Predict the 3D structure of the following.
Amino acid sequence: MQPQVIQRVLGLLLMVFSLSMVPPAAVSLLYEDGTLFPFLLSMAITIASGFSIWYPVRRIKRELRIRDGFLVVVLFWVVLGISGALPFALGTLPQMSLMDALFESLSGLTTTGATVITGIDQLPESILYYRQQLQWLGGMGIIVLAVAILPMLGIGGMQLYRAETPGPIKDNKLTPRITQTAKALWYIYLGLTASCGIAYWLAGMTPFDALSHSFSTVAIGGFSTHDASLGWFNSPLIESIAIVFMLLSGINFSLHFVAFSRITLQPYRKDAELRTYLLILGASAGITTLFLIFSNTYEDVGESLRHGIFQAVSIGTTTGFTTTPHYLWPSFLPLLLLFTSFVGGCAGSTAGGMKVIRFLMLFHQGMREITRLIHPNAQIPVKIGNKPLPEKVISAVWGFFSLYVASFSIMLLLLMATGLDQVTAFSALAACMNNLGPGLGEVGAHYGGINDFAKGVLSFAMLVGRLEVFSILVLFSPAFWKK
Amino acid sequence: MNIIILGAGSVGASVAENLALESNDVTMIDTDSEKLHALQDRLDIRTIIGHASHPSVLEQAGAADADMLLAVTDSDEVNMVACQMAATLFNTPNKIARVRASAYLDRKELLQQEQALVDMFISPEQVVTDYIQKLLERPGSLQVLDFAGGKVQLVTVRAYYGGPLVGHELKTIREHMPDVDMRFAAIFRKGRPIIPKRETIIEVDDEVHFISAKENIGQVMRELRRADRPYRSIMIAGGGHIGTSLAHAIEGNLDVKIIDHDAKNAQRLSEELDNAIVLLGDAADKELLLEENIEDIDVFIAVTSDDEANILSSMLAKRLGAHKVMTLINNPAYANLVESDIIDVAISPQQVTISSLLARVRQGDVVVAHSLRRGAAEATEAIVHTDSKVVGKAIEKIKMPRGTSIGAIVRNDEVLIAHHDTVIQPNDHLILFLIDKSRIHEVEKLFQPAGKKFPLF
């Protein structure tokens, strides 16, 4: 552990990210919505605290080690969550308690998309924009962005990158240098965002809505500038655009990278994870649609098809846009969709959940045990796409799974102890930990009605989900803190 | 530069480390995922698991955009096939293969074809052997590096009591030897660099690097230490690749004893060598060393593949009275530990090998580049282009990066030791010395032809 190195990096990162208050301030100026001051004040506070953290140790120039990487990443997410909450807490509209502001900020950064705010349509433009921007920054990863733009992190960048990037195998750099890899990821991300925004705009959104929704679509976030989410537009075209970009953003970005740099569709065709991802989403969309038709939830088949597919993709990728109050559907469906959010998107994407590749590994592993019962002496490697997996990776996936379940159970009990009913507690926790957003029961529409302690637990769950359990829980192990 | 390295062994790993730290883009291929994982933990490189010579693996590593391919796996054949793949399928410009077998190395025409599949062979064992041989030719030196085809040498020695110059200012050397031209490149005192000025006083135990024409080296060395008499009896511990070829090379002129603990290997050695005495036994066996009159041995050279065995047997030999010990140390962490009074010269095979590669990696026209002081410093021979901005300037007028000095100039086969008023002409070969290697890019820029652009990333 090198506290001074950690302190220096943390201070630098804070100072850099205080700049993220500039665009919303500009939006505020543009629309003259009267919330300029909270943004400027938040920026000043963030810069000042970053500077005072950095200044005493500015001359320390050592490389980050693996342990430092974890601490920097977790600390930075926490600190940025707090500083991101400032504009909410300092402004007059929306009127928010500190806990609410923190919840909203973390929900944005972790791309969860759960909100405590009602009356979103009446909010000032700058606050609306700011919420979307939080999601966009958190989507590809603020650390990945930092690695891309701050070359001074050096090899330490790799340690940070690894602590933040989702997925079980993190050594696959796209390019030899970590800064280039981070840049490549952000270029793809930018490209997707731009094309999504333009498509929305052409489909009839205002430029402001198009930009805002492109941010939360490609980040797989789920915030919207309207209470009714994407349903407000009531446009099948916009919904289909959203479906396409949610699907694209849930794919491993290294596939996009290879496909773009070599101009070929080959990598998509060969990838086993992608195939499973599409299979799961296709199956859940099919089941949802059929069930809606046969339960006569909607009057005609077209409506069932439209809402069924949209909700299945939106929840399956952990985005959390809604076009209809899906939590009022026959109770089988909301639960089915909630379960698909546990699987989530592909590793190395902006989606949440446990990631398709992990489930694929667990599935193959389970199949292997069954084969072993029949052929006790057989040598059976676990293969994904014809490549055998190292045993180390498989046991890491089991460890991940058990920790995910264990932390889920503990937080579920905590939530129920605060008085939430079972459906609300379970769905809220699943929606937050999988970075999905909307839950069921009391939290179907928004999270405003639950108590502060529960909001605190859920905020923590969002972080645990975004940083994929290990990076956070490692800080709770005594061995980490030993000299 | 975009460089692909095949094989994550000790040579591959240390080359990767050196190149990555100089902000080259390095991709490493190996079949051993554990090794790659460990490397990626500490270096900013990309790693790919796979068979080094398979086209699909090379393609994945970006061979089509690579500037250099360095094949240093364990197998000569894999290395050469990989180079062939890169040449025919991906048109990779620089292909270097590590080759051990002299059956291949002796066929120079392999490299001289019009469309050579391999541009350069390196044989670390051969390079290390040559290096040790040069040290033996200059008794008392810690390092001997050739420039301009051996006309100029850069020699490192430790200053001792009894050297006429020790305790005096550098400029007094002119009075001692008015007709010998030489230049002090750098002095390291207790590991810290000192940029030599005319008034600098040499102290005992200083590590002095100087440049001079080959024929004057001996004379200068005598200024810095008592005259070392030529070495006569050598004992080599370890009959592996290096031990064998070293014994071969020197057994004609010197008395050589070579120890190996493997009976079959010792048998083979005794059949291959003509004059050397082959001893079967443990190099760290006190009785054996005493029996063989270790106290009369001029140089004890430990070159087994085992660092610990090398260090321990060297320490023992020194304790028992060997005059000088040289030790092959692979692990860089050890090399820093043992440089003390006991082990006179620690030889790092990686550093020696890297020196032979550096010239290829350097931009601008670098002919030779030698890595010094375990990679911290560097000595480079570069060609001055007609349109370079240093042409026509006197040396004192050139703004050199800190810690960099021009040691000598080779002009039309003639060696000129650099003075402050020497004017640089086109096509001069400059011999530069950099105390701090991280400034190499500034130096490269200085000598690069004006039109050439740097890549953006």
About this structure: The longest strand of chain B covers residues 182-189.
